[in-house]
């Protein structure tokens, strides 16, 4: 359908108009927009009418996009529109699964989720998370429409033609709540079968076909159906008379079976097919051999010809990335291997690589995680880093369990149409994210004015399993702390595997599932088999939970179990290197998990100390701390992060955290004020090395070799940001991620971690040492972990996240944050581990240097406020250790650029993994910098729970003075 | 799927008698000339096996007469892979064995199975003893006798299932180191090579299996059948042949263990499963 050409559409328009008239429905948008087009008006009805009406194909709109159009009608409509508003209306044609078309008008600037929601409404579909919208690109490849992005940006050329498809094939369709959902899944599968995408044997064709017939036509009735009824339907790519006869034979035996039952049988058979739900991509292996990569709910499958030659379950995958036309997966070390390995595949082109990458990210998130990872703050940037933003399967199931309506009537009669359509459509397979973005809107594109660089310090991981365990715990704690609001967060972390997703270019986004992450960091080598088993067990657990359908607002049973389950810890060990995912393991300790406060508290204590410091500093906002530039030693950084967290939390959670930090709140407020004053400010989090000067560039420079490269890239992307001199992400879009493995000395990275603190957040610096002491507290695993790992570790990540959320935005979307938080927590844990090694520095270290030039509104002054926790000593990296690996990942969003440096070092018997994250937020005054910063920090934390915010630099240029020297 | 019922349901067994040329066959295989086999004993053991299948397990037995011209024809497992209602007639590696398929083809046709010929497509060779079907998927051991192309044909024939290729070490055949011991149980040898293969299988599979390891290679080849009476039967090598492993089989709960000697066939590289093709003609749909 997509490619119908203009002639067609033109011809149809008049007809459509008539139809529309008859049927009331017009696109809502159209209706709203064009009050007076002569022709249309009579027809127009309330927007709602259009959707609700069954009028399938014709539907609503004839309205034409003004852009494209030819028919007089369209013109008419246009003019009115213009008069009223300037919004342009586009006609969208969507090929539905039953072969019909659904046409509707949308504002040209509408985002994907608008279209998706309208389609689902039209279809009366509630369990929509499994579905998505595809459109064909120039190469006729199907691409999933990103719900959070504007449609027009996703359709380069051509008419607005889409297809509605199943995006995530549920492994167990019986668990779907509604029959109508299964009905649509069946339609998709029938098409998959007929098109050959889902190969099956003759016997299977027979069985599937017979159930399809029963579903569509009901009981076998020769008088009514005639003898040839079966030939009107399609069951197989090469349908034979013999097949039809067999289908009929079986059909005769189903008398009395309802359509819904038939569909269940259909699905029960279809789901067992080995290619069920496998999204295939052509590729070549490192030796140039043609292979196919199949993405499915359980992981990545590698096929050569028809043979499965390898398989990487999600838990085995530490990182997914792509660069140019190469696609990489980093594999967790096997039982007897010491290091992870990276496997590269060549795809036909860059787009294909990106497409595959996205599909992997989405599938991993949907099936493996409890909740989406980092997206929580869509506001700013997330655009660039692509993340699956919809609900995960777990969330979807929970939501579905809440569905409380009478089973809707499913119109299945359209079979013939379907047949026809099938032949036409052929292959609707694409992959998409269907999920509507939660809050994409806010992200917006702010201009450059503010940039915040967040640098998170990397945590050193001790290899010792114990430590790992601790770490895991810690993450959980963190998660818990964050979660206070929402239990969902925990869920997200369930799987806890971390898988990083790196985009082309520079951006590396690491996804961390709590468990994996922690594992990864800690253990270089993890026992794969065990892990697998664990995972399986866990998944089983999950299933059972899921099945139970817990929808309770508080912690769901699922969550609880996760937290409580001992299994988690083991996984934790296995966890991926970089980012801690919040896994069930984390949850093991969960009892506390619910209480974010607890975690916070520990932090808070630390925070308190820092806070004090901050207060002094912060008050002075502008005070340029002497050390402002100072990098923070890695360990310190941890602390710093903690601080940040603490402060933020404190602000938000002040009450909660009571223990330590009452004062912090005050500090925060101050900070807030300062921040608020500075709205334009750039916040730069620099690593110790880099002095956080107001200039983002400098910060970026921080020492890491990787950075430079990144910056260059980033700059290109971020040019927008005035200040944002140093934007790492090359690609503006979130998607591109580059991993750079630099030889950069780990030290630098460690030292350099600077996290940006939200302005409002005020940096809370919690001495790691304090935290360590705190560790004993309630419990949060994080704390404990910290204590174990070393004194200095900071729980901050969690706290910071929370605080950020609260303080900055007062985030409404606590739920969203929730998930991230857990992650963060995890991260924290890891950090803590790392910290111990570094521990020496940490406690004392927190020196927060705030060099803020408070320049009120006047000139374009740039104010730079730097909050650093600098531990010079740490910077010194007493023990350089041996650098195992270093990589830099940069991701950009319109307003935010995130650079992540990951360094692995071995010192003595301890391996440290340090992750430094620098986030630069650039934006116009319009943008709420604080929010942006808060989001950025949250994101960072989510990704790396362990991280601490080392430095926050707020660079403001006052509008008044145009562009004068920023610095 | 009709084809996807749990492993182990069989109604028929197809066997082929041990010819008097037993052990001399292998025409070009000089190595085998050296091994001394006891024809009478081999035939006796064959008789015990078929007797167990028919009388103990309760299968319908179809015995193809021995053919002296085809000294290895008793290894009937090699020439066909049967799953559900489909039989893939394979193309054995050795030229002189290719004649063995004719009689088997005829029998499976009479059983109303859909017959698929591997033929000489792209030099495909595959022997049944390199194929492990678990009820949910196929594993094909790439060996000296089975190549990638052969595995592809298998995958094309049984499209419902994942077909994974796994390495087999030391010139062994896949079925010599592992076999099914239940609907979800894989019996596998404890040797290093077998472990390596097992690891690969674990990596490749989407499913969960219980693994029963046995200390002796020979013991890893068993025949599991869920008989018409719904009882679990396991034909395994007797204690005389595998003293170390018998205790492992005792762990299988509620199984009827049928120790079945196979020492002579074993000398020629065969094993229990080599001697029969199992068929299920009662396909259940659901």
UniProtKB/TrEMBL annotation, chain A:
Pfam families given in the database record: 4_1_CTD (PF05902), FA (PF08736), FERM_C (PF09380), FERM_M (PF00373), FERM_N (PF09379), SAB (PF04382)
One molecular function GO term is: actin binding
Low complexity biased stretches: 69-79, 827-847
Which residues lie in Basic and acidic residues bias regions? 9-26
Q: Does the keyword Methyltransferase apply?
A: no
Which SUPFAM superfamilies does this one have? PH domain-like (SSF50729), Second domain of FERM (SSF47031), Ubiquitin-like (SSF54236)
Its GO biological process annotations read: actomyosin structure organization; cortical actin cytoskeleton organization
Keyword Phosphoprotein on entry: yes
Residue ranges under compositional bias (Polar residues)? 784-806
Give the start-end ranges of region Disordered: 1-79, 460-604, 691-721, 765-847
Q: Which of UniProt's keywords are assigned here?
A: Actin-binding, Cytoplasm, Cytoskeleton, Phosphoprotein
Residue span, FERM domain: 90-371
Compartments (UniProt record): Cytoplasm, Cytoskeleton
Domain of life from the UniProt record: Eukaryota
Task: Please give the Gene3D superfamilies that the UniProt record associates with this protein.
Answer: 1.20.80.10, Phosphatidylinositol 3-kinase Catalytic Subunit, Chain A, domain 1 (3.10.20.90), Pleckstrin-homology domain (PH domain)/Phosphotyrosine-binding domain (PTB) (2.30.29.30)
GO cellular component, alphabetical, reads: cytoskeleton; plasma membrane
Name of the molecule in the record: FERM domain-containing protein
Q: Tell me what organism the protein belongs to.
A: Gasterosteus aculeatus aculeatus
In the record, what lineage is assigned to the organism producing the protein?
Eukaryota, Metazoa, Chordata, Craniata, Vertebrata
Automatic annotation (TrEMBL), chain B:
Q: Which family does it belong to?
A: Belongs to the DDAH family.
Q: PANTHER family, from UniProt?
A: DIMETHYLARGININE DIMETHYLAMINOHYDROLASE (PTHR12737), N(G),N(G)-DIMETHYLARGININE DIMETHYLAMINOHYDROLASE 2 (PTHR12737:SF16)
Q: From which domain of life does this come? A: Eukaryota
What GO molecular function annotations does the UniProt record carry, in alphabetical order? hydrolase activity
Has UniProt tagged this entry with the keyword Hydrolase? Answer: yes
Which keywords fit this entry according to its UniProt record?
A: Hydrolase
Q: Does the keyword Hydrolase apply?
A: yes
Name it: DDAH family member 2, ADMA-independent
InterPro entries in the record: DDAH-like
């Amino acid at each position: 359908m997509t490619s119908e050409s203009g002639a067609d559409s033109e011809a149809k328009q008049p007809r459509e108009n008539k139809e529309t008239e008859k049927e009331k429905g017009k696109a809502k948008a159209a209706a709203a927009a064009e009050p007076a087009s002569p022709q249309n008006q009579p027809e127009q009805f309330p927007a709602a009418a259009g959707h609700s009406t069954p009028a399938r194909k014709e539907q609503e709109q004839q309205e034409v996009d003004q852009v494209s159009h030819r028919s007089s009608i369209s013109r008419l409509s246009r003019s009115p529109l213009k008069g009223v508003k300037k919004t342009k209306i586009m006609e969208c044609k969507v090929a539905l699964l039953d072969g019909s078309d659904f046409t509707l008008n949308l504002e040209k600037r509408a985002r994907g989720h608008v279209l998706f929601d309208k389609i689902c409404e039209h279809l009366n579909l509630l369990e929509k998370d499994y579905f998505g919208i595809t459109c064909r690109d120039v190469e006729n490849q199907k691409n999933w429409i990103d719900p959070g992005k504007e449609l027009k940006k996703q359709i380069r050329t051509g008419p607005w033609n889409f297809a509605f498809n199943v995006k995530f094939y549920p492994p167990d369709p019986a668990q779907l709540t509604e029959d109508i959902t299964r009905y649509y899944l069946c339609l998709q599968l029938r098409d998959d079968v007929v098109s050959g995408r889902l190969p099956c044997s003759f016997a299977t064709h027979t069985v599937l076909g017979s159930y399809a017939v029963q579903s569509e036509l009901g009981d076998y009735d020769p008088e009514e159906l005639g003898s040839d009824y079966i030939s009107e339907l399609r069951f197989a790519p090469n349908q034979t008379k013999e097949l039809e006869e067999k289908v009929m034979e079986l059909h005769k035996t189903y008398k009395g079976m309802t359509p819904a039952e038939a569909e269940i049988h259909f699905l029960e058979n279809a789901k067992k097919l080995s290619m069920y739900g496998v999204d295939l991509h052509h590729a070549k292996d490192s030796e140039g051999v043609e292979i196919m990569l199949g993405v499915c709910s359980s992981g990545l499958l590698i096929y050569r010809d028809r043979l499965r030659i390898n398989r990487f379950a999600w838990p085995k995958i530490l990182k997914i990335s792509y660069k140019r036309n190469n696609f990489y997966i980093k594999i967790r070390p096997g039982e007897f291997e010491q290091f992870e390995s990276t496997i590269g595949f060549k795809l036909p082109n860059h787009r294909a690589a990106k497409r595959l990458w996205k599909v992997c990210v989405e599938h991993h998130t949907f099936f493996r995680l409890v909740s989406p990872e980092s997206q929580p703050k869509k506001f700013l940037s997330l655009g660039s880093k692509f993340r699956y933003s919809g609900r995960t399967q777990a969330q979807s199931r929970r939501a579905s369990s809440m569905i409380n309506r009478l089973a809707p009537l499913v119109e299945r009669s359209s079979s013939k149409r379907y047949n026809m359509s099938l032949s036409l459509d052929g292959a609707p397979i694409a992959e998409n994210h269907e999920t509507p973005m939660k809050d994409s809107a806010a992200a917006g594109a702010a201009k450059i004015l503010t940039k915040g660089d967040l640098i998170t310090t990397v945590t050193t991981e001790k290899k010792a399993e114990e430590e790992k365990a601790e770490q895991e715990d810690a993450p959980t704690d963190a998660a818990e702390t964050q979660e206070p609001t929402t239990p969902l967060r925990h869920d997200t972390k369930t799987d806890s595997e971390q898988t990083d997703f790196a985009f082309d270019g520079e951006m590396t986004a690491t996804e961390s599932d709590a468990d994996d992450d922690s594992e990864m960091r800690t253990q270089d080598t993890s026992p794969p088999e065990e892990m697998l088993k664990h995972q399986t067990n866990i998944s089983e657990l999950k299933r059972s939970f899921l099945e139970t359908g817990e929808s309770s607002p508080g912690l769901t049973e699922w969550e609880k179990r996760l937290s409580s389950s001992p299994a988690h810890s083991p996984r934790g060990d296995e966890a991926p290197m970089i980012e801690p995912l919040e896994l069930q393991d984390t949850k093991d300790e969960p009892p506390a998990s619910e209480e974010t406060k607890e975690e916070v508290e520990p932090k808070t204590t630390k925070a308190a100390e820092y806070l004090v410091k901050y207060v002094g500093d912060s008050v002075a906002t502008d005070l340029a701390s002497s050390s402002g530039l100072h990098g923070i030693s890695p360990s310190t950084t941890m602390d710093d992060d903690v601080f940040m967290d603490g402060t933020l939390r404190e602000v938000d959670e002040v009450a909660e955290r009571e223990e330590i930090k009452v004062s912090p709140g005050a500090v925060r407020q101050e900070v807030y004020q300062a921040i608020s004053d500075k709205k334009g400010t750039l916040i730069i989090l620099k690593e110790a090395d880099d002095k956080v000067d107001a200039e983002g560039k400098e910060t970026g420079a921080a020492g890491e070799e990787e950075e430079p490269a990144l910056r260059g890239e980033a700059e290109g992307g971020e040019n927008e940001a005035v200040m944002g001199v140093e934007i790492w992400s090359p690609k503006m879009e979130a998607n591109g991620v580059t991993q750079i493995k630099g030889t950069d000395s780990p030290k630098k990275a460690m030292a350099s971690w600077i996290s940006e603190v939200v302005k409002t957040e005020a940096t809370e610096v919690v001495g790691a040492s304090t935290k360590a002491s705190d560790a004993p507290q309630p419990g949060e695993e994080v704390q404990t972990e910290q204590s174990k790992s070393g004194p200095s570790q900071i729980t901050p990540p969690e706290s910071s996240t929370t605080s950020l959320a609260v303080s900055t935005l007062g985030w409404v979307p606590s739920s969203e944050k929730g998930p991230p938080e857990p992650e963060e927590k995890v991260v924290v844990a890891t950090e803590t581990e790392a910290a111990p090694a570094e521990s020496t520095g940490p406690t004392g270290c927190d020196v927060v240097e705030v060099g803020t030039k408070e320049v009120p509104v006047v000139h374009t002054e740039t104010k730079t406020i730097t909050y650093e926790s600098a531990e010079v000593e740490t910077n010194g990296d007493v023990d350089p250790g041996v650098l195992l690996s270093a990589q830099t990942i940069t991701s950009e969003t319109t307003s935010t650029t995130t650079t992540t440096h990951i360094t692995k070092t071995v010192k003595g018997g301890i391996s440290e993994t340090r992750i430094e994250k620098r986030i630069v937020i650039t934006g116009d005054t319009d943008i709420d910098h604080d929010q942006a910063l808060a989001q950025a920090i949250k994101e960072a934390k989510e990704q790396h729970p362990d991280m601490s915010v080392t430095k926050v630099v707020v660079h403001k240029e006052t509008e008044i003075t145009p562009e004068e020297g920023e610095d | 799927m009709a084809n996807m019922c749990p492993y182990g349901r069989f109604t028929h067994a197809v066997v082929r008698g041990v010819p008097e040329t037993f052990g001399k066959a292998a025409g070009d295989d000089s190595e085998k000339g050296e091994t001394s086999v006891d024809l009478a004993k081999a035939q006796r053991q064959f008789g015990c096996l078929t007797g167990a299948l028919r009388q103990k397990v309760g299968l319908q037995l179809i015995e193809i007469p021995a053919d002296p011209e085809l000294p290895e024809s008793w290894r009937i497992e090699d020439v066909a892979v049967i799953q559900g209602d489909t039989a893939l007639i394979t193309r054995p590696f050795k030229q002189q064995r290719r004649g063995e398929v004719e009689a088997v083809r005829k029998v499976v046709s009479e059983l109303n199975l859909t017959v698929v010929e591997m033929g000489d497509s792209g030099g495909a060779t595959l022997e049944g003893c390199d194929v492990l079907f678990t009820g949910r998927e196929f594993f094909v051991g790439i060996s000296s006798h089975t190549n990638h192309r052969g595995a592809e044909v298998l995958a094309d024939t049984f499209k419902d299932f994942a077909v994974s290729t796994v390495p087999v070490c030391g010139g062994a055949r896949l079925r010599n180191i592992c076999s099914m011991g239940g609907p979800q149980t894989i019996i596998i040898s404890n040797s290093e090579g077998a472990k390596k293969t097992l690891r690969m299988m674990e990596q490749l599979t989407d499913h969960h299996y219980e693994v029963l390891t046995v200390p002796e290679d020979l013991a890893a080849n068993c025949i599991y059948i869920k008989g018409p009476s719904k009882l679990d039967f396991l034909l395994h090598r007797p204690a005389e042949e595998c003293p170390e492993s018998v205790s492992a089989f005792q762990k299988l709960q509620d199984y009827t263990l049928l120790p079945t000697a196979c020492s002579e066939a074993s000398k020629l590289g065969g094993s229990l499963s080599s001697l029969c093709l199992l068929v299920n003609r009662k396909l259940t749909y659901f």
